[in-house]
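Issue 218. Parser rejects a valid record. Input:
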Amino acid sequence: MSQKKLVAPFISENISLSSRVVMAPMNRRRAIKGIPSPSMITYYQQRAGAGLLISDNIAVSSNGGAYMNTPGIYTKNQKDAWKKVVEGVHTKGGKIFAQLVQSGRVGHPAIQNNEPLIAPSAIPVNETIRIPDNSYQSMTIPDAISTEEIPVWVKVFKEEAINAMEAGFDGVEIHAAHGFLIDQFINPLSNTRTDEYGGSIENRTRFLFEVMQEVIAAIGKHKVGIRLSPFREIYDLKTYPEELATHEYILDELQKLDILYVHFSNAVADGKPSIPLSFLENARQRFKNIIIIAGGFSVETAEEILQTGLVDLVAFGKLYISNPDLAERIKNDLPLADWDEETFYHGGDKGYIDYPKISFQGCIEC
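Output the parser choked on:
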């Protein structure tokens, strides 16, 4: 049996986890009109052996889900369905956080309830996206949020964080990564505003911190995490000269807020990670609470990064798709199953809840 740090319990003042293995947030796109499907109960319950589960992207509004079949939590039916998911996880002894997202300029009105996309500035993403007729259409020009409207969107995040807690989630993760709305405010390539929400680092991060402050006030700082993706190039967003300074400022301010964790999303291209170790060393000095990292890790490389002490937990995506009992397999040195990319983002139960578990003796159990 393995003695890996990865599967050792993680105990801090504010949370205790059975291991340092996290299921990364993934939008598997199995919701029905924004409502989590019954299969989603099974899906999360199968994976409750993770130290921590982080949910699919959960839209905070009807125009905030980016992709077809994204779940939401802004209606009673959605919240009630999530309650069943969370209860399923808790009956298996798991812990689960809700990842809350407003996708901003990423999406299409045909997906977003025929509502316009919103963004800090009226700059579209120069990409296509699949819409309900299964064609691929260009993303539309978003409506720039007026200064007067910003408090409305801050309140939306707060209200859906409350909904998540009422549904029974153990906490929430604010999605400020991957080129979605909060990240669009942070990045000057998508934020050309001239009011107090654009220009300087302090202004470009103002929306982020207004959201964080309101969510913290509503549910408590130790129930709140955040996802960030420094140096990640996605949806037309490229690296920019002030990016390091921007994220240093963000980490310093998050430390003052004393939130539970920061979750970095790492992208690996040509064998090179978007987040260098030097940045993690910097982050560890600035942020003293829990640091999670995700993105292309194998069991071996996850163990290596944990041994450096620069992160506390490692999140797995693809490996958790095909290995619902991933933490148990790691602990018992059992082989890992391959995934089917064709079923990542669409389809029914195939490639979703039909990956088998494996027993300690090595026999397959569905």
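Fixed in the parser; the record now loads. The longest strand covers residues 52-59.
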